[in-house]
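Section handout 9: paired folding examples.
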Amino acid sequence: MDHSGAARRIACGHSHGTVTDLMVRSRNGVPPMRMQAREPMPRAPGMEAGEIERGVFFIVGVPRSGTTILRKMLGAHPRMWVPNESEFFMRVPRTSDARELRRAFLVYAGSEQFAQQGVDAAELLEAIDSGRCVDRGSLFLEMMRLQAGRAGKARVGEKSPHHCRHVERIAQELPSAKFIHVSRDPRDVAASSVLTPWTCHSIVAHTKGWAAIQREHRRLMGVMEPERYTEVRFDRLVGSPETELRRLCGFLGEEFTPQMLLPLDRGAPGRFRERLALRQVRTVQRIAGAEMDRLECARVQTPERFAWTCADWAETCAIRVSRLGRSIRKRLGLVAGA
């Protein structure tokens, strides 16, 4: 997707699904922009920005770990809403300069992730230009307020798995935010990932990423306050959903409701036995064994074969060469930064 082109269309007032034309006033030297705005969203009870900030929470973890299932469960609560992945803190740089914030948001507003949020870019630009949003954190909270208003709920969460790499920065910007990290057997993560068209299909790459994120998760468990950061294990969530959801509701300060007990028709623990070859299982266990043991994931006995070790080594080398090539291209300005 051409993000810059989409941003230009927004800046020129060609956003979709809008009904009222207005001129966004120039502020801090930023030229005025002609925008299209929807009629104001209705506010749910308790929809002031301060209350949204006190109630915001994040669902994080390795992709394909069960974060979507947890999002749906928590979103079924009558007071809570968890929209689609925003990747906000990955895509919008931290700044307290109004002009930089405005420019960064226009780029983000042209992304597929923002398009899935169902909010109007004009309303967020107006919040920046009026001075209500003065930095990245306040802009995020305004977007969440609009999300909650659209859903008619008083509290909102965010589910972007890769925000697990940004927890401490988010925690600094949003001092009341809470975080739920979803952990899952890496073999099941790999089995799910290799069947997902839009992901890398390298078992080695997936497992190395899983192990790195789990190590960071363990570190966060040691430095974050337990009132702000907790873990849910996927096998326990699907095995004893009511027990885990009651615990998570307590962590979030909400009452458990039976509406959260959604039917689970996929993702049963141990699915890797049907989907991964024995060599792939051995690869995952070799790379992530230490973290698997900490999660009490029982290992499968696999034979030792020199050819398998050589194949893993070759795949690791290919990954390193690919990353080195991308790094060089970024330095030469041949590819956009991540």
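Moving on to protein 2 of 2.
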Amino acid sequence: MPIRRIARSLLAATFIANGVDTLLHPKSKVEAARPVLDKARTLVPAAASVDPELFVKADGAVKVGAGLMMALGRAPRLSAALLAVDLIPSTATEHPFWSGDYADDRRTQQAQFLKNASLFGGLILAITAPSSKKSKLSDKTEQARKKGERVSRRARKAAENARKDARKAAKNTRKEVRKAAENTRRGVHRAARHVGA
């Protein structure tokens, strides 16, 4: 359906643009990701060797790749799931509204956080949407139903026209029978007068 393609492209556009920006300008995002990576290093010792810049660039590449896949309709559920999983840590590192020093900064971060929560909701809808095969089937079912209704309407109209034609023919037949009976009666009457004369 064209509407689904448009919706997927619109949803993916934010991730593609953000991923490209991350790949081109990773520095600000590296600084935002550092505290989260430091916490991860204390919890998971294997994360100690992870380079923050490489981590941020990999995040950007995932956004661009999954975003393009989603926009093009290639494995849209999988790409939506990848973007949803990627969105959670990105939102936590880039928009921590709970730790802002100024009210205006907290409001701005909260608005961005809620925007990302909305995107997450859209991705969940994309993940759980019925597959296009089912929708094609339901489209064909709907087309068959409409065609059946058209055929039914035509059949009812043809039956009504046949009834009208039958009534008209019966009326004409009755007229002809009366006319023939009247002509026969007149003919018999004339013949009787002729014979009697």
